[in-house]
Each structure stands twice: as structure tokens, then as C-alpha cells.
């Protein structure tokens, strides 16, 4: 009964979505104010229905109702309660339901926060959101209802949640990531409304900014959680694999970052208007592309997608419709957006634009590397894979350019600046950073790599010049208060870049064969494999291995790594033994049992790896601080 | 030239330069890092030079996995049920590496015709099977 209730609520939500998308249009044509303002009420109704629907599904999960096919496929009653709930978004149908619910959550939040804003403008926004949402609800109802039931041959246990998803990091990763993805729907709706209105005032930019920041903050958090999860759960010690699924989340992030900065330029100076609108459209289109890539089955093989055509085809048409219609509107109305101010070649605006350009080029290169193999495969031109070296090769130089522009840009003034003044301003931090990077390379890092040196230099430079922007004839608190968001976020990027550089170039990775009581040297550390013991978890059993970590014969840490076997799915999983630290991690992952009691073991020394996620958290903090700031004073 | 035109020209030049640089980087990187994917049967028809990095997908042949006694060396065969390819690898195998399950190996052919893998990938999904192999297995079962 409860699952049917959930399905009914989902159908109701679709009805609300139709009201939301059609009424403002009809009202606009016939001049009926009552119909125009209906969108605001409809989005609230839609959210409540989605919520009821998602609660019904959670109920089926909590009580392991195996008559619901989706529950049977993705859960089991032996799972701990927490994972029975998070199993809801462990598969295709549930995660789309979450997608739509979060979309309407954002919509309702917008409705509640903008009561006193021009209602004609808001009606256009809600109408756009309504179309986006009805497309997805229709997709859910037609091709992938999570409430489908089957009463014959009820199984006694489910197929269990994939063990690698049974981890707190990954349990909350999808909601955060989706909050980011669908948050860009608000920016998209703003873009369409602005285009139809044909006017983009600075007040609108002020109104738009927090929504972009919010979406971007959630997306950043989602990406960090995913990276952290991959590090400690996959057992390879990697934090980024350039996997298509990861790339799918990075694409909207890059464009979202560009969007945040252009919105601020637009708010402050009234420039880059059509650029902002374009970025708003692209960021949401990429979020949809990400959803398509992950959810259509196209990643396993483009032909797997052809075997189950309904879902993939629907999503592809939907994506094409959104992109084509929004770009047509942009081509038609975009030229009406005229800028208010102007700026010289040497100005903060130019650096912002330059940074935007680099971010878009980064996005394009990753998009190419991700889609190219699929395209070739789809056209039967052979199967290829584009490896990590490609992404690293194109990403590194672009990231350095980006960081360079980030270091200079904030020291530039708006509108115009002379070259002498600029050089004088940036030269100090540049020289000091070069010296620090040389010292670090010479005294701390044992080897010299050109790329590692450059990476260190750019990170230090960004850090110094960000801090420099706090000073104006001595330290200034008002500047700290005014620029806190930028400072936190840019320092975050500096930390992240430093972490990435040092981990990639100065880490030690050893794959060894080890029997108990054997010792392996890892840089200045010694790892001793002490013993193994059986372990027993709630829904798995396995072997624990104890390691002892010493440095110069002094005790550092005792670590336990695990090799688990999950009962229901019979899937093995490595739980890495990690000694976390601000400056380095020691990472030990069990491979497999070899003969004579020996194991294959990965033993890694990862310096500064935590800085990657720490930097990410600082970026999120920057977004939060930016949310709290009021509009620019004029 | 009018100042506004001059500025536009400057910006356009900058964009063209950036774009050109990026395209050059991409083409260079793509040339180095594209790896073709074959099944063992397809490999036989191809003229692959020893030392060229490629990917092979198939199933780990049952009974073919042999670990060395004192190192991390391991030898196994990748099969698509028509042809087999012997593979050697040094390192830790992924969790889901099993005899009779799907695997993708990346590496080079040695001059002796064996495949020296630098990377062994088993998908997270236990039911994963490289698509061409899945087709061939379905055929084999139908016979």
C-alpha cells in the first residue's frame, strides 16, 4: 500500500509540474495575473509530493519490502539501518527520484526567499523550472519508476547494496553532488528568464549570486567527498582517476566556477552580461550531461545503452531539447543584453575573462577526452581508451595558467590599471614565492622535477598574493571582512594545488610481497607486518592484518587493514589501513593471499594528500562566507 | 584604429592564442595517450608492433592464474573463448580479479608474443564483462 501511495504522490508531483510550466505561459498570453503567480504555489506543492514519494520509498527500504523490485535489487535486511536508508540512492531509479526532489527543494527555497521580487520575472523562472522538472518526472514515471512491484516468487533476501557504497563518505556523496547539479538549474532558469525579459540589471545579478554560490559549494563538497571516498575505499590510494563519472562532476564545476566570477563582475560593473547568461546555460547543460553519462548506461558501453534504449534515448532527447531550445533563445535574445560599463585591456575584468576562458578550455579538453572514446565506439570506428596521461598532460599547464591569473587578478583594480603599477604590485610576491619554492625543493623534497617545482611555485605564489591583497598600507581588517570569501576560496585552491603537486611527485608507492613478521622500508619509515586475525562485521566477515609503523626505531602507529567478504553479494572489499596526518599519510592496503602465508600489499607514503581535501573544504567555506555577504555598495 | 576596436582586437588575439595553444596541447596529448582496445581474437588480425601500448579485454581463463613463489609476478591468460593470450604482470591484482571473470589489461606485446601488463582492471560490478566478450559468450552458450 505504501509504495502505491508513493507512486501516486509522484504522479501528483507531475501534475503540479505541468501546472507550474503551463499556467504562467497561458496567464502571460491572456494577461491573467492569477495564473501567472500560480508557479510559486505549484513548486511548493510539487516539492511536498516528491517528499511524500521519497519517504514512501524509504519506508519500503527500512522495512525491506522485497515486493518492490528496486528495494530487492539494492538492499538487504542484514544491512545496518543507515545504509538501508542511503541504499535509496544506490541505484538508477532512486537517485533520479532524489534528483527531482532536490530540484524542487531548490525551487521551493527560491519561492520562499523571493516573495517581494517582481512577480513577472519570477513567473518566468518558475515556468522554466517547471519544464525541467516535468521532463524528469515524466522520465521517472515512464521508464524508471522506483515503485514497480512484483509479488510472485518473493525472495527472502535482497541483492544487497554494492559493498563499495557501504561507506559514510559515499552515503552522503550523491545528495551533495546532486544538490550541486540541480542547483545550477536555478542559474539556468535565471538565464532563460533574463533572456526572455531582454534586460539584465545589476540587481538581478545580486539576486542570482547566492544561488550560484550555493550550488557551487554543494558541488565542491560532493566532489571532495567522492575523492576522499575513492582514496580510502577503493584500495588504490588514488584520489582522482579521470574516470568518466568523475569528469562528469568536474565539468559543471569548472563552468560554475567561471559563472561565479562573471556574476560578480556583472554585479559590480555591469559588464559580461550575455557571458553570464551563456555560462548559466552551459553549466546546467553539463549537469544534465553528467546525469546522462552516469545514468544511461553509456559508460559501460555505448552498445549496452543501445540494448536498453528507452532510458538512454529519453535522456538523450531531453538533453538535446534543453540545449537546443536554450541556445536558440540565447541566439535570439542574447544581443539585447547591453553592457553598462567598459574596461581597459589591463584591468581586473580582463583577468576574470581570461580565467573564465581557461576554465572553459579545461572543460572542453576534459569533455573531449571523455566523449571521444564513446563517439568512436558509437560510430563503430574501433574502441579506444583515453588514459590518465592525456588528462594530466593537458590539465597541468592550464592549471598553472589559471593559478597565475588568479594570483595577479585580485591585485588588479577594476576598469583600468597601468602596467608599471601592476608590475610593482605583483613583483614582490612573485620573487618571494620563487625563493620559497627553491628552498622547499632543495631542502625538503629529495628530487627535482620541473613540473613539481613549477607546481610548488605557483601554489606558493597564489597563497602569498592572496594574502597580499589584505594589505593596504599595513594590515586592514575591513579588507579581510570585504574579501573573506575570495581569500578563503583562493587559499583553498593554493592548498589543493600544493597537495596535488607534492603527492603526485614526492609520494612513494611500493607494491610488495609480505609475510607476517617481515619489514619493509618506506622512505624514512619502516612498516612491519605483525599478524593477521579473523574479523566479523554486521554483514561481512574477513581477515584483519596488523601493521606496525616506526620511524628511526621509534613507534609511530599501529594500523589495521582489512580484507572483507560481504555475505550476500559475495563481493570482496579492501579496507585500507591509513595513518592520517596533516603532512603525510601512510597507506597500507591488502591485496590477496599468496602462498606460504604471504600477502601482496600496497604500501604508500602520501605527503600532503590531506591538503587536497582541506583546500576543497576551504573553497566550500569561501562559498559559505560569500553567501553571507550583502550586495555591493555603489 | 579606434581604441574600442583596438581593445577588441587585443582580446580576440588573446583568445586565439589561448585556443591555439590548447588545441596544440590536446593534439599532442591525444597522440601519445590513446590506447586501442581489442579482444584476443581481434588482436591476432591486427598488426601490433611490440612496445605499442594497447588494452585487451576478456575473461581470465579458468586455471590459468599462476603466482610466483617469491615475488609479485603473476601469469594468467585472457580469453574470449576463441583465442587465448598469455599475460604477465607484476604487482597487486584488483579485488575483483577472479578466474572466469571479466578483466581489462593495459600494456605491451613483448617480442615473444606474450602480453606484458602494466595495469590490470577489473570492474567494480561483479557482473561486468567487456561487451564484445559478452556477445561471444552468448554465442558460445547458444551452441
Can you characterise this structure?
The complex is a heterodimer of chains A (634) and B (143). Chain A is built from 19 helices and 10 strands. Chain A is of the alpha+beta class. In chain A, β4 and β5 (540-551) form a beta hairpin. In chain A, α9 (202-233) runs antiparallel to α10 and α14 runs antiparallel to α15 (388-408). Chain B is an alpha+beta fold. Chain B folds into 2 domains: 1-33; 37-142, OB fold (Dihydrolipoamide Acetyltransferase, E2P) (Beta Barrel), CATH 2.40.50.140. Helix content of chain B is 34%, strand content 30%. Chain B is built from 3 helices and 7 strands. Chain B has helices at residues 3-33, 40-45, 131-142; strands at residues 34-38, 54-60, 66-67, 73-79, 84-90, 102-109, 115-121. In chain B, a hairpin with a 4-residue loop joins β4 and β5 (84-90). The interface between A and B is large, with 50 and 41 residues. β1 (383-386) of chain A pairs antiparallel with β1 (34-38) of chain B.
In a nutshell, what does this entry contain?
Chain A has 634 residues and is an alpha+beta fold. Chain A has helices at residues 2-30, 33-36, 38-62, 69-74, 81-86, 92-113, 119-143, 168-197, 202-233, 244-269, 273-295, 302-307, 309-333, 348-378, 388-408, 419-444, 450-468, 477-506, 609-627, and strands at 383-386, 508-514, 519-522, 525-536, 540-551, 554-566, 572-575, 577-579, 584-593, 599-607.
